Amino acid sequence: MELKTSDCPCPKKECENNSNCETCRAKHKAAGNLPYCLREKTLSFDSNGVNISCTKSGEGASLIFVHGNMGSNQFFKDCPKLFKNYTVYLPDSRSHGKSDLVKRLNYDEMAEDIVCLIEHEKMVKPILFGFSDGGIIALKIAMKHPDLLGKIFPAGINLTPKGIHRKYRFLTRLVYCFTCCTKFGDKMRLMLTQPNIKAEELKAITIPTVVLYGEEDIVNLADSQAVVDNAKNAKLVIIPKENHGSYIADNEKLYNILKPLLEEEAK
User: Fold this and answer.
1) Which end of the chain, C or N, has fewer beta carbons within 10 A?
2) Beta strand ranges found along the chain (DSSP E)
3) Is 207 helix (H, G, I), strand (E, B) or coil?
4) Within 10 Å of residue 184's Cβ, how many Cβ atoms?
5) Quick one: which of 228, 64, 44 has its CA closest to 131?
6) How many CB atoms lie within 10 A of CB 23?
7) Plot region of 74 (φ>0 → left; ψ -120 to 50 → alpha; else → beta)
8) Is residue 189 scored above 80 in pLDDT?
9) How far apart, in whole angstroms, are the C-alpha atoms of residue 164 and residue 69?
10) What backbone torsions phi and psi does residue 65 show, to the nearest 5 degrees?
């Protein structure tokens, strides 16, 4: 059996025009042409009046990667081809990438954007990997929506602004002084004023949690340890000789770290 793009049963001919089609996966799979349906697709959805952009690719269990402050989903651009057995979602946080710009960022609203993504895509117990701000978002969701996610992998997180090493807080304040009236300044303000997560709040996290920490990170190890000490099913993995983002920006290195952890959590 051979099914060509021109035979796609989707009314929008998405396999032909967009290399994606939600309605004809089964037919393409039977024909051995599933790649037509699995290539990257750009999603756009409303989250409480803010348009959030996200790419989606692959097939399998849902795996969401959330980037850090001043980043975009391009930070994880190689992950879809590395994590081949998953449906990989790469959202842009509000005021980042192709998502809408907002006047004031806060982690609670950023977390709800990911909740809206999960609901929009009807995901069941997705795995969420969050780097830096993305890790804070993962913790926020796991605390407020304890049954929504399957597993979380927060990496390079701080629970309060003081969780960032002093010299980097000083540099952030300095940059903020010159950028406070710009959209860039709002991102600096976020780092200087949030998050404010109390140890007691972490006890609400009951799902499997693996906290990643670079040995040379700019955030305090104590904050990562506090998650492990208070969440009900958490452990800490320290990555030797890595800084805040070095083991994540290298997507292949990240894959090699996460692969055994994902397999271990799946057992």
Assistant:
1) C
2) 41-47, 50-58, 61-66, 86-91, 127-131, 151-155, 209-214, 234-239
3) coil
4) 15
5) 64
6) 14
7) alpha
8) yes
9) 13
10) -115, 125
Q: Is residue 214 very low, low, confident or very high in pLDDT (cuts 50, 70, 90)?
A: very high
Task: Return the CATH architecture of domain 42-266.
Answer: 3-Layer(aba) Sandwich (3.40)
CA nearest neighbour of 254 among 93, 78, 133: 78
Residue in the structure block whose two tokens are 């609670």: 108
Range 194-209 average pLDDT? 98
The alpha carbon of 163 is separated from its chain's Cα centroid by a whole number of angstroms, namely 20
Tens digit of each residue's pLDDT (9 = 90 or more) over 229-255: 999 999 999 999 999 999 999 999 999
Binned at pLDDT 50, 70 and 90, residue 41 comes out as confident
Q: How far apart are CA 101 and CA 95, in angstroms?
A: 4
* pTM of the predicted model as reported, rounded to 2 decimal places: 0.89
**Where are the domains positioned within the chain?**
1-39, 42-266
Lowest pLDDT segment from 8-12, 58-62, 73-77: 8-12
Closest by CA to 22, choosing from 5, 10, 35, 6, is: 10
Mean local confidence (pLDDT), 43-64: 95
Identify the residue with better confidence: 122 or 266.
Answer: 122
